[in-house]
Design goal:
Blueprint: H1 5-8, H2 12-28, H3 31-54, H4 62-79, H5 83-106, H6 111-130, E1 138-139, E2 142-143, E3 150-151, E4 157-158, E5 161-165, H7 169-191, H8 193-203, H9 205-210, H10 215-241, E6 243-244, H11 251-264, H12 270-286, H13 294-308, H14 313-348
Antiparallel strand pairs: 1-2, 3-6, 4-5
Helix pairs in contact: 2-7, 3-7, 3-10, 3-11, 3-12, 4-5, 4-10, 5-10, 7-8, 7-10, 8-10, 11-12
Length: about 350
């Protein structure tokens, strides 16, 4: 069962420490790498809030990541300014997810079929976007570009000033701020009745229905929120890469985010973030060598974690930390009791 104090209470000391770490991260890594790790962490968090707390597994979560990226690219090419495209990159994936989720949840499709449906949607988008080469495949002034993708669009700019581009360090701090704000939003959701009902659905869906909750509506709601966060990550990725290709819908992208969340730890918010950043950095390091395929090493890491730490790394560390604290408290309590008894015996003498 869920430990509520760990869900609806924010340790502001740890949060401020995270803010400091993110502020100094570009001093350890180059800005380009640090930004990518932050974006992957946001993407993993978007799946972690839905899968870990509502029990909804989306095999095709990359669909919303890609929709956010393509929505931004198409909109900014047509509009020429990034404020509205930035908002649309959240709104479009959320609407698509609401439509898919509404049909699935109100149609009482099982969780297994939901995973299959989301995966199929991702593969369809990948195939379609790969086949959009040619002048006929364009939205307004934006050519989709097929497998070559869409390069050369405007990156984020100061609202109202299209000529003042926010790239490099500003993009990193915008991405870090988006991750921290998304984390706070997730905490806020879990602290409300909405979040408690989601966990109730994960534990016993039928009981929640008997208590009068509209389970389908709650599932559709968190499905849309999760998709909006994934779309935000996709938008930031498009700005980081300065090009959008069908690879954002790829099967590899869909599988990697699952691995990040599992390794980091389901049922936590910090787990997917740390899992994505750690494994993402390992992936970048492995990309510098050609001896072993990256997928083999990531797969081996996943198997090792699942067998050794079935709940993930962060829950395992939390259990060890809590056990150590409890042991220390017992020792302190026993020592205090001994001192009290010794003092009492000396007074009696």
């Amino acid at each position: 069962m869920m430990n509520w104090p760990s869900v609806d209470r924010i340790n502001w000391g740890w949060f401020l420490l995270a803010v400091g770490i993110f502020a100094l991260l570009p001093l350890v890594f180059d800005t380009h790498t640090a930004t990518l790790l932050i974006i992957w962490a946001l993407f993993a968090l978007s799946l972690g809030i839905m899968w870990g707390f509502a029990g909804l597994l989306s095999f095709g979560h990359a669909a919303y990541f890609g929709l956010g990226a393509y929505t931004y690219a198409v909109a900014v090419i047509n509009i020429g300014e990034s404020t509205l495209p930035f908002l649309l990159s959240l709104l479009v994936p959320a609407i698509v997810a609401a439509i898919i989720g509404g049909m699935a949840f109100y149609g009482r499709i099982s969780d297994v079929y939901l995973g299959v449906i989301t995966l199929v949607v991702t593969l369809i988008l990948f195939k379609f976007m790969s086949a959009t080469a040619g002048d006929i495949y364009k939205i307004g002034s934006a050519r989709l570009g097929g497998f070559n993708g869409m390069p050369g669009f405007h990156t984020l700019n100061v609202p109202g000033y299209p000529d003042i581009s926010l790239w490099g360090w500003p993009t990193y701090y915008i991405s870090a701020s988006s991750l921290l704000l998304s984390y706070l939003v997730c905490r806020w959701i879990l602290a409300r009745t909405f979040g408690r009902v989601l966990i109730g659905i994960r534990e016993n869906e039928e009981r929640c229905e008997l208590l009068g909750y509209n389970v389908a509506a709650y599932k559709t709601g968190i499905f849309s929120v999760s998709a909006a966060m994934a779309g935000l990550a996709g938008c930031l990725f498009a700005n980081w890469a300065e090009i959008v290709t069908p690879s954002v819908f790829s099967l590899g992208q869909a599988v990697e985010v699952l691995i990040w969340v599992i390794v980091g730890g389901l049922g936590t918010l910090i787990g997917p973030i740390l899992g994505a950043m750690a494994l993402g950095y390992v992936k970048l390091l492995l990309g510098e060598q050609t001896v072993i395929d990256n997928s083999l090493i990531l797969g081996a890491l996943l198997i090792a974690v699942v067998l050794g730490l079935p709940n993930g790394v962060v829950p395992a560390i939390r259990r060890i930390w809590n056990a150590a604290r409890l042991k220390l408290r017992r020792r302190v309590s026993e020592g205090s009791t001994r001192r009290t008894l010794n003092a009492s015996s000396q007074v009696n003498r």
